[in-house]
Amino acid sequence: MRWFRRGGAGSSGERGAGSYGERGAGSSGEGGAGSSGEGGAGSSGEGGAGSSPETGTTTTGPDGRAASRVHVPWVRTRLRAATGAACALALLVALTACLAAAFPRAVDRYEDSGLRRAAEQARPDRTVIEVYAPPPSPMDSSATRENALRPDALASQDSQVRARIPGPLVIDRGQSAYGVRSSQDVPVLDPWLPRPTGDPPQMTLVAQSGLAAHSSLAQGRLPRADGQVTSTTDRLEAAVSTDTAKALHIKVGSVLHTGVYTVRVTGIVTPRDPQGAYWSTKTVLRTPAVIREPLPSTDMYWVGALLLAPDAGPALLARDGRPERYWQLAPDVRALRARDIPALRYAISSLEAGPALREVRRRIDGPSTELSVLNGSTEVTTDFDDVLIAYDRIRDSIAPLVAVAAFGTGTVAAVVLLMAGGLTAERRRAELALLRARGVSLRGLTARLLAETAAVAVPAGAVGLGVALLAVPADRAGAAAWASAAVTAVACAALPLRAVAAHRVVRVHTGREDVASVRPSRRRTVAELTLLVLAAGAVESLRRRGTSGSAGDLVSLAPVLLGVIAALVLVRVYPLPLRGLARPAARLRGAVAHLSLARAGRTSASAVLPLLALLTALTTAAFGGSVLAGVREARDHAALLSVGADARVESAAPLPSGLPDRLRRTPGVSGLSAMSVTDAKTGGGAQSLPLVGVDPADYAALSARTGLGAFPQRELKAAASGAATPALASRATAETYGTRPFPVLFPDGSTLTVRITEVLDGTAAVSGPDFLVVDRAALGQEAARPTGLLLTGEHLDGRALREAAPKTATVRLRSEERAAYVDSPLQTGAERVYTAAVAAGTGYALLALLLSLLRTAPERSALLARLRTMGLTRAAGRRLLILESLPQAFLAALGGTLTGWATIRLLSPGIDLTAVALPTAEPDSGAVELRMDLLSLALPAAAVLLLAVGVGVGQAWWSGRRGSVTELRAGDAR
Question: How crowded is the C-beta side of 159, counted as CA atoms within 13 Å?
């Protein structure tokens, strides 16, 4: 049973000083010394000096005997006393942990998707691992050689080869195959087969496994091998694909004579997955092709494939046949992971020329002997490593840009967590100072605060991690767990470290701690100079090496370091102009302007954290916004270069004469320019280049609107009869022919003498380094007929254009071309993650500003209440709070805008956005430079100012509702 002495200070029976009835010193309302509400030193609420977190104090009765030991848990009491603050901290930690854990999983997700898309878009003849074995040794017996080509032996070797594939390379058994094929195509002499130039078709004889599983019968039946097939078998059955049957006029029952073999076609099959590895590793299996003999020969012939029964392989040993055993190992695209690229490249290198190749040869060729060396060895070839290298190059170009947003947002989030701990420490300054005065050690104080914060932060961090794992599916959870743990650790350590730093020395009353009285220490000066050197080194490294080099994480930290330096400089500098403005403001009527500027100039010395958060976020947002704007502009420009206008209609043959009028009436079309493109020859017919005939007025207007090779219309007007025709030319063509007149030869034998009058970097009609553009009126009737139309306009209807155009014409829209550039998981995923990171950083910056204003809210509310008792109006109170908070926000917004501008100007020479903007761009294509985006500079800064004004107005309104008396009584304990 608890026992209390009645009537003394801190009693519950009377309403004296420190009683439960009023909020005096030591009361339960504010928790002064000895209280139960906040738990002062020696109190039952928090366990005073010498007590453990789970044990209160021992009270004594009037006779001096111990009455009872009061057990009051510290953590539970503190959480009950400040439930709102605990919930806010839990929400902040959960949200931050969720974002931190989701980031690595989102990166893994889009990188893995990008790798799989790259593998799918690459042709199977590049990604499949092909194993070739030489024909059986001619020194072996016929039976031994025949058995080596039978399906059972090949299947056994296939299992052994797949077992020797190094991890993490996984083979897709469904698309893999093995078999026997003729090493050389055999001519088919039947006269009824098509012969383009008189040469007979060449056919590949293939006995490949899995034909029934990978095809469906269109006609007939699948081939069979009757009886035991040997090297003397000369009558075979085969199937052909539907494309082969159509192109070579083959039907079910057709008999083909190849000289050695008589092959009867028993069926026509349709591939189930024509683009799969089974049919597309060697496309001749499904689609025949016309082969041209090397120049100067003009001979052409068909090449196709006859699909034999899988157990007909021994028949290919007939006479001098040298059949080739092969195994096609298709990688499983679903098992590809971007993080495994180094291991995948090592596995492929080992298969092509390494330990894995030795194991494969041992299983297929047997022990190495002199005879086996003469006969040849098994070889492994693939271009899959080239696909991985190309993808890895693009990923390495994108990763530093994403890291910039990650480091920026992470810095701002860490600052917000530290500010949350600092806000709690500031609110509890008197309590913690009294605990230290009553004998609590720094270690004991740290342990109490750490346990109190961990009770909230650890469960919240676990909840955030769980939400991230569920919201962003990915394979790895380790990086997400580490990120969430880091957030939780920062949240747990913020309050104890801030309290220890503020209460190292035992003191109850502290002096002023504004920037006017607190001078920077030598350690702070050294730290600031160190950050300045790091920032300068990062910027110089990025300018020299670019983002694709080995500059490391320091390059990604460059915008953050520049923001840090700007924050430190601003903290030192910004009170000076405010004090300068306060002097003339003192001469004005009224005290609002002078008082607000004076208070803003004497802001707390700890304001470096909110300024750091604001400037870092504004710099990162400006940098990220400029990156995203540069990506959009690059894609727009690339689509314009590809199409030449907003839409393009072209055909190999002349277009109908009424087509331009029909297209002009199509919705959205505002301009149209007809053109005729002819492959003309120059230099006596030795060289050729595209010659474009256009209408000067229409083409000049289109070029001016698109910005592609704008020129004055008069430069293209046809000259008088007998004079050379004016022409626009590319720089390469102008360097070759100069300004002298020269003739060009048309395909119909006519000629035209032209003279270059204007040199262009490019033109809308054609792409390439060489071109000539002339007036169509100067061309002959046949050459002047339009073969293409360039259209301009807003919101063109592609369906309507295709319906109006003839079927032989192709219609391309600039909008559709641009949409194709974003059809890449790697680029679009990185862009989305970047956008989310920048948005999260901006949100955290606004939260930092809000926490900064809330830190001084009680003091400002008390000041406003006192001034109202002296006659200050509500309108003047609103102006006071707005003017007090606005200078810091304005200078932060201005500093962030200038820092973002400087960051972009300094870092743009070393940043190439090509990999992010254009997924199909070649490495030697023109670089897409980072450009300034004014909207990204202005919007975040405006948001900061609006929030500062809104908080000032809201606080003035709330203080007015509470009343001056209530506010002053609530502020006594502060």
Answer: 5
User: How do beta strands 687-694 and 772-775 pair?
Assistant: parallel
Contacts with 216 (C-beta within 8 Å, 6 or more apart), sequence order:
269, 270, 272
For residues 383 and 125, give the distance between their C-alpha atoms in angstroms, rounded to a whole number: 8
Average pLDDT of the residues in 525-536: 78
d(CA 658, CA 672): 13
Surface-to-core class of residue 1, CB atoms within 10 Å of its CB (0-12 exposed, 13-18 middle, 19+ buried): exposed
Q: Are 381 and 352 in contact (CB under 8 A)?
A: yes
Report the percent of the chain where pLDDT is more than 70: 80
826's CB contacts (< 8 A; 6+ apart) are 110, 111, 113, 114, 115, 117, 118, 391, 394, 395, 398, 919
- Which amino acid would we find at residue 384? F
CA 651 – CA 787 distance, rounded (Å) = 6
Q: Which residues are 676's β-sheet partners? A: 693
pLDDT digits (tens, 9 = 90+) for 812-833: 888 888 877 766 788 788 888 8
Tokens 């893999």 belong to 176
Helix axes 608-643, 384-427, angle to 10 degrees: 150
Beta bridge partners of 58: 69
DSSP string, 11-67: -SSS-STT-SSS--TT-TTTT-TT-SSS--TT-TTTT-TT--TT--PEEE-TTS-EE
DSSP state of 647: E
Environment class of 44 (CB within 10 Å of its CB; exposed 0-12, middle 13-18, buried 19+) = buried
Residue 235 burial (CB count, 10 A): 11
Taking Cα atoms as reference points, which of 391, 345, 518 lies closest to residue 117? 391
User: Can you tell me the distance from the alpha carbon of 575 to that of 607, in angstroms, rounded to the nearest whole number?
Assistant: 11
Strand partners of residue 669: 793
Non-local CB neighbours of 961 within 8 Å, separated by 6+ positions: none
- Cα distance between residue 630 and residue 235, in whole Å: 66
Helix (H, G, I), strand (E, B) or coil at 481: helix
Find where tokens 């992010």 sit. Answer: 916
- Whole-model pTM: value is 0.74
C-alpha closest to that of 400 among 249, 548, 560: 548
* Residue bearing tokens 């003498």: 753
Lowest-confidence segment of 207-221, 548-562, 705-719, 915-929 by average pLDDT? 915-929
Residue 87 host element (H or E): helix 83-121
Farthest CA pair distance, the chain: 132
DSSP class of residue 337 equals -
Cα separation of 572 and 591, whole Å? 26
CA distance 11 to 185: 107
Report the DSSP beta bridge partners of residue 937: none
Kindly give, in sequence order, each residue whose CB lies less than 8 Å from that of residue 16, ignoring residues fewer than 6 positions away.
Answer: 7, 8, 9, 24
User: Pick from 562, 570, 576, 561: which is nearest to 611 by CA?
Assistant: 570
DSSP string of 251-270, one letter each residue? -TT-EEE-SS-EEEEEEEEE
One-letter amino acid at 262 equals: T
Tens digit of pLDDT for each residue in 489-506?
Answer: 999 998 888 888 877 777
Query: What's the rounded Cα separation, in Å, for the pair 344 and 337?
Result: 9
For CA atoms 493, 495, 496, 498, the dihedral sign is positive
Which tokens hold the place of 748?
Answer: 């119909």
Tell me how long the chain is.
974
* HEC profile of 490-503: HHHHHHHHHHHHHC
Measured in whole angstroms, how far is the alpha carbon of residue 64 from the centre of its chain?
73
Q: What is the DSSP secondary structure assignment for residue 310, as one 8-state letter?
A: G
